[in-house]
C-alpha cells in the first residue's frame, strides 16, 4: 500500500506548486451524477478519483450538509482540486492515495460510512494535455506516463527493461495492436525516451494507409494502461 498524505483544501503549497494553470476538465455525466446524488441526499461523499474537482464542486454545491473525501493518485490533480474547492474547504478532505486502498483511507481519515461513492476512471484532460506528463504523442516530452510521478519508474524505463515477447503481449492485449510483434521489436532495439521518439518509431514500423487513426494510437493506449 502506498504512503498517503492528506492535503488540506487550498493550503499545502507543495501540492499547489505542482498545479498547472491550465488544469481544466469537463466532468463527464455530471447531470446523471447529480441526479443520482439528489435521490440520496448524501452526508458523506467519497470521490475515489477527485481529479481537478469538477464533480466535487458540483456535488458540494448541491449538498451543503455533505462532507467530501477526495482521493487521487496524482499530486498535481490534488493541487488543482484544492484550489477549485477552496470555497468548500471546511467540508473537504483531499488525500493523495490509491482508490484500491479506500478501506484503509476511510479508517485513517476516520471518515465514517460513506453514503455516496464516485469513481470516474481514466486519465484526465490535464494528464493528456501537459507535455511533461508524457501521456500523449501530440506533444514532445519525456516518456513518463505516470499518474503519480512520486512513485515507480517512468514508461521509458519500463520499456527499456522489457523483452520482445512481454512487450508484444502488452501491445496486443492492452492496445489491440495488430503489429505488436514488429512494434515491440523496434521498441526493444531503439529504447525510446520521448513521446515523439516512440510515435516516430511506431509510424516507421506500421505500413502507411492501413488505418484512419495515427499508427501510434494503439501503442500509446497500451503503454498508458500498462
Ligand atoms: C477523469 S479524471 C477525474 C476527473 C474528476 N472527476 C473531475 O470532475 O475533475 C480521473 C482521475 O483519476 C485519477 N486516478 C486514476 N486511477 C486512480 C487510482 N487507481 N487511484 C486514485 N486515483 C486514480 C487520475 O489521476 C485522474 O486525476
The small molecules bound here are:
S-adenosylmethionine
Low-confidence stretches: 8-21
The sequence of SSEs as H and E is: EHHEHEHEHEHHHHHH
- Evaluate the radius of gyration: 20 Å
Mean pLDDT across all amino acids: 90
CATH architecture of the largest domain: 3-Layer(aba) Sandwich
Look at the helices and sheets and give the structural class: alpha/beta
How many strand units? 5
Concise description?
It is built from eleven helices and five strands; from the N terminus they run βααβαβαβαβαααααα. It has helices at 13-17, 30-40, 54-62, 75-84, 102-109, 125-129, 155-161, 164-175, 180-190, 195-205, 217-225, and strands at 5-8, 44-47, 67-72, 92-96, 116-118. α2 runs parallel beside α3 (54-62).
Give an account of the 3D structure.
The protein is α/β, with parallel strands linked by helices and 226 residues long. It has two domains: 5-127, Vaccinia Virus protein VP39 (Rossmann fold), CATH 3.40.50; 131-225, DNA polymerase, domain 1, CATH 1.10.150.170. 43% of the residues lie in helices and 10% in strands. The protein has helices at 13-17, 30-40, 54-62, 75-84, 102-109, 125-129, 155-161, 164-175, 180-190, 195-205, 217-225, and strands at 5-8, 44-47, 67-72, 92-96, 116-118. Strands 1-4-3-2-5 form a five-stranded mixed β-sheet, covered by helices on one side. Strand 2 (44-47), helix 3 and strand 3 form a beta-alpha-beta unit. Helix 2 packs parallel to helix 3, helix 8 (164-175) crosses helix 9 and helix 8 (164-175) packs across helix 11. The radius of gyration is 20 Å and the shape is elongated. It starts with a strand and ends with a helix. The structure holds S-adenosylmethionine. S-adenosylmethionine binds next to helix 3 and strand 3.
Amino acid at each position: 500500500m502506498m504512503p498517503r498524505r492528506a492535503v488540506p483544501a487550498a493550503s499545502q503549497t507543495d501540492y499547489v506548486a505542482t498545479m498547472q494553470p491550465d488544469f481544466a476538465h469537463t466532468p463527464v455525466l455530471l447531470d446523471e451524477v447529480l441526479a443520482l446524488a439528489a435521490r440520496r441526499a448524501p452526508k458523506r461523499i467519497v470521490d475515489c478519483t477527485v481529479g481537478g474537482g469538477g464533480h466535487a464542486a458540483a456535488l458540494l454545491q448541491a449538498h451543503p450538509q455533505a462532507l467530501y473525501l477526495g482521493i487521487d493518485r496524482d499530486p498535481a490533480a490534488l493541487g488543482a482540486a484544492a484550489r477549485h474547492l477552496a470555497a468548500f474547504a471546511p467540508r473537504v478532505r483531499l488525500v493523495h492515495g490509491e482508490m484500491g486502498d479506500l478501506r484503509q483511507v476511510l479508517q485513517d481519515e476516520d471518515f465514517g460510512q460513506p453514503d455516496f461513492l464516485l469513481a470516474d476512471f481514466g486519465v484526465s484532460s490535464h494528464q493528456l494535455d501537459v507535455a511533461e506528463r508524457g501521456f500523449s504523442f501530440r506533444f514532445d516530452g519525456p516518456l513518463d506516463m505516470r499518474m503519480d510521478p512520486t512513485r515507480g519508474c517512468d514508461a521509458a524505463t519500463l520499456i527499456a527493461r522489457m523483452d520482445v515477447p512481454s512487450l508484444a503481449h502488452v501491445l496486443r492485449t492492452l492496445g489491440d495492436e495488430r503489429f505488436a510483434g514488429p512494434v515491440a521489436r523496434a521498441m526493444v532495439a531503439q529504447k525510446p525516451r520521448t513521446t515523439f521518439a516512440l510515435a516516430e518509431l511506431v509510424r516507421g514500423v506500421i505500413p502507411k494507409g492501413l488505418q484512419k487513426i495515427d499508427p501510434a494510437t494503439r501503442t500509446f493506449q497500451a503503454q498508458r494502461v500498462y
